[in-house]
Each structure stands twice: as structure tokens, then as C-alpha cells.
Amino acid sequence: MSPWMSRAVFLVVAVFFLLFFLLPIWGTLRTAFQDLNGRFTLEFILEVFRSPLYREGLFNSGLIAVLTTFGCLLLALPLAVAYVRYRFPGRGLLNSMLLTPLILPPFVGALGVQMMLGQAGALNSLLANLGLIDAARPVDWLGEGRLTGVVLMNILHLYPIVYLNVSASLANLDPALEEAAANLGCPPWRRLWRVTLPMILPGVFAGSAIAFIWAFTELGVPLIFDYDRVTSVQIFGAIKDLNNNPFPYALVVVLLFFTTLFYAGSKLLFQGDVAGGGGRAQRWHEGRERRVKKEQVEMGNVVGIHFSNARAPSLSKW
User: Fold this and answer.
1) Mind listing the pLDDT tens digit for each residue in 26-82?
2) Hey, which bits of the chain come out as E strands?
3) Cα dist from 45 to 66, 163, 218, 254, whole Å
4) Could you report the per-residue pLDDT of 143-181, keeping only the tens digit for each?
5) Residue 173 forms beta bridges with which residues?
6) Rounded to whole angstroms, how far apart are CA atoms 249 and 304?
7) Which long-range contacts link 155-159 to residues 24+ away (Cβ below 8 Å)?
8) Is 206 inside any structural domain?
């Protein structure tokens, strides 16, 4: 790329970044920290923490984010280990299916889950027809306030992000380190916990941070489940106020503060590079697979030779 083309691309990106990122943030900060007379104030920010409604919304948003991140890790870690470390039929197809939630809007899945697990959903209708539950008092499978449904839908939508990051870290991991631990007698589960997991923590952190921040600020899924006791929905409801209400802007500032604090703190705790070998793990597993096939062929040849030698005396009689 020529120098003038590079400058032009840089200028376009800088203008786009200024217009659609910095200016909206500046407008939000100005509204949140200015009173009606245009003077600096912290009253709106402090009122967010004084209000029981806003405190409940922040607590529920944090709870959803923590449960979603934990669920994504429980789902993505075993899948990533199985995909990177083992070869089995349909491996490529399984990987494609695991990434399908990335191309689907989350509210589409939320509608499906609500139709299946809602109080008037298909599961309760089936159980009522079988006589297992009372049709007049259906089971609330999604939990009180639909919190369970929001968490479940966030996990199903965000686990591919954690899965991709963990898979990339495992593929770049130097297998010699695990081989050394195995040679010293370390059992597989302890090797995974004491050797593998600490070395892929940067990848785990990268995926978990995205999942946490995404779930913490998610709007579409709580709206579909009619769960309005989270900060994102409170902002959405208050921003439609035509009286230039400053509290939704203060809530946005508080959300930005907590997401930035979480990312910075996690970065300081888990910063570092993956102890990798430039994709050696992937090549090592492929080479091991080729060696196994070669050994199988050689073993077949040896068995064939021995079988021929054993049959030679009886064949010579003919």
C-alpha cells in the first residue's frame, strides 16, 4: 500500500472513530456530569447508587454477567479440549455447528426458548396432556422474573466466543510442556489443572471478558423475556423520555466505569502470553495421527508376514 493510501485509510478510520465513538461518549459524559445550569455535578451519579431501583438493576446485571461467564466456561472448555486434542469422525461438522450461535441474533433464540419453556410453552402443554402437571398451575421453568431464561440464552449465544479463544490458545500451546509433566507421572486431570489451564489463561480471560461485558450490557434478551430489572433495560426505558432526563446517561457512565474496571483488573491479574510454540500443538497432533496410522500399517505387515510364514509349511504340502 502506498504512503498516501495509508494516510487516507488512517484519516477515514480516525474520522469514523471520532464521529461514532468519541463524540457520543463525550455527549453522554457531558449530560451525566452537568446540572441544569451547565455546572459540573456528581449528583446524578450519586443518585444512581442511592436509588434502590437502580442498585437492583446493577446487581441483576452483574449477577447475569457472572452466571453467563461461568456457564460459558463450563460449556466451552471441554468442547475446546475435545476439538483440539482428539480426532474423531464429524469433527469439522461439530466445530461448524458449535459456531452457529454466532450468526443468529440472540433474540431469535430467546423467542424459541420462551415458546418452549414458558408457562404457556410446549413443555408445559406436553406435561399437562400426559397428566403430569396441573394445566391451571403450570411450572415456571424460566424462573421468577425470567432471570434463568436470560442467563441460559446468554450462555447459548456467547459460549462460541470463549470456545474460539480457548481453542486458539490450546492450538498454540507447546506440547513439550505437557509431555514433560506426563513423564514425571502427573495424571491427566491434574496435568490439565496444573499445567494446561495456567498456560492458556490469557485466552480464557480474553473470551471470558468479552462474554462478561456483553452479558453485563445485553439489551435484546432481557427485553424479549420482559425482564426490566437490569440496567440496560432501565436505560432503554428512560432514554425515551422527552424531558432530557439525565439519569439514563448517568447509568451509562456507571456501566462504562464497571466494564472498564473489570477489564483493567482482569488484564492486570491475567496478563501474559500463551506459552505456545507457533501452532506446534496442532502439528503435533496431526503428526501423531500419521504416526499411529503408519504403525498400524507396519503392524499389519508384520502380522501378514508372520501369518504367511506360519502357513508356508502347510501350503508347501499342496
Assistant:
1) 888 888 898 878 888 888 999 989 999 999 999 999 999 999 999 999 999 999 999
2) none
3) 24, 37, 21, 7
4) 665 788 889 889 999 999 999 999 999 988 888 888 888
5) 276
6) 79
7) 155/68, 155/71, 155/72, 155/75, 156/101, 156/109, 157/101, 157/104, 157/106, 157/109, 157/221, 158/68, 158/72, 158/101, 158/210, 158/211, 158/214, 158/215, 159/71, 159/72, 159/75, 159/76, 159/101, 159/211
8) yes
| CATH number of 64's domain | 1.10.3720.10
- Using the predicted structure, report yes or no on whether residue 129 has a pLDDT greater than 90: no
Distance of CA 140 to CAs 68, 111, 114, 123, 124, Å? 20, 16, 11, 11, 9
Let me know how long the chain is.
318
pLDDT tens track for 251-293: 999 998 988 888 888 777 766 544 444 445 555 455 554 543 4
Alpha carbon 216 to chain centroid, angstroms: 12
Q: Please tell me the pTM assigned to this model.
A: 0.77
Q: Give me Rg for the CA atoms of the chain.
A: 28
Asked whether residue 5 is domain-assigned, the answer is no
Backbone angles phi, psi at 120, to 5 degrees: -105, 25
Q: Which domain holds residue 217?
A: 57-246
Report the C-alpha gap between 223 and 107 in whole angstroms: 9
CA distances 271 to 7, 14, 24, 165, 219, Å, are 32, 28, 30, 15, 30
> In this structure, is residue 36 part of a structural domain?
no
Q: What is the share, in percent, of the chain residues with pLDDT greater than 70?
A: 82
